[in-house]
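Q: Predict the bound structure with adenine.
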Amino acid sequence: MWKARVFTLYPEIYPGPLNKGLYGKALEKKIWNLEVINIRDSAGDKHKTVDDKPFGGGSGMLLKPDVLGKSIDANIKKDEKIFYLTPKGINFNQKKAKQFSKEKVINLICGHFEGVDERILNTRNIEQLSIGDYVLSGGESASFVVIDTVLRLLPGVLGNNNSKDDESFEHDLLEYPQYTKPQIWEKKSVPEVLLSGNHSKIKDWRLSQSKDITRRQRPDMWKKFLEKEKK
Ligand code: ADE
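A: Predicted complex:
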C-alpha cells in the first residue's frame, strides 16, 4: 500500500479533495493511505509554540527546528524520503510523480510563516520541493497537488491503465485534442479523420496535433522533444 504522510499545522483540512471519487474509493480499498501529523503536537511549552523570529532580523517567523525535529523523529522511519514543500525547492513534475509512486512512503512537510530553520533540512536529510514558480501561503495546497499526481499513477486507482500512455508530458508532448458526441455541436463538426475508422490515420493526426500544441504552448518542451528526436 502506497502511503503519504503529511506534516502540517492544519491537519483538519485533510483528506479534503483526496477523499472524493476514485481516490476516496481507493482509500477505502486500502490501495493507498494518508497519515496526517499535527506538527503542533510536538511543541514542548504550554502555549504549544511552533515558530519564532529569525536570528539576524527580518520579517516573518520560522518553524522551530526542535519542534519539527521531534515531530519527524517520532513518526518517520529510517530510509523514507522526506520533502519540504517550498518555492525554493527543485521542480515537481510528472517524472518525479512516477518516482514517488514507486516509493512505499513519502513524507511531505508543509511549511508556513517565512520557512523553516535551515538546520532541519541537513540533519534530517530533507529535500526541498516546489510545485511551480509562484508563492503559496503554505505547503498544504502543494501537498494536495503532489499526492493527487501520484495517486492517479498507482495501479488500481484509475479505471483504464492505457489512458496514461497518451497523456500530456508522457513523451515530451502535450496531449492531442479530444471530442465526443454530439458529432455536430453549435454548427461545428468533429474533425473528419476521427470518424474515418482508419486507426493509423487517426494516430498520425493525433501526433501532429500534439506537436502543434506543444510548439505553440510550450516552446521549452518542444525544444526538448526535438533534441530527443535528433538522437
Ligand atoms: N509553499 C509555498 N509556495 C510553494 C510552492 N510553489 N511549491 C511548494 N510549496 C510551496
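A: The longest strand covers residues 81-91.
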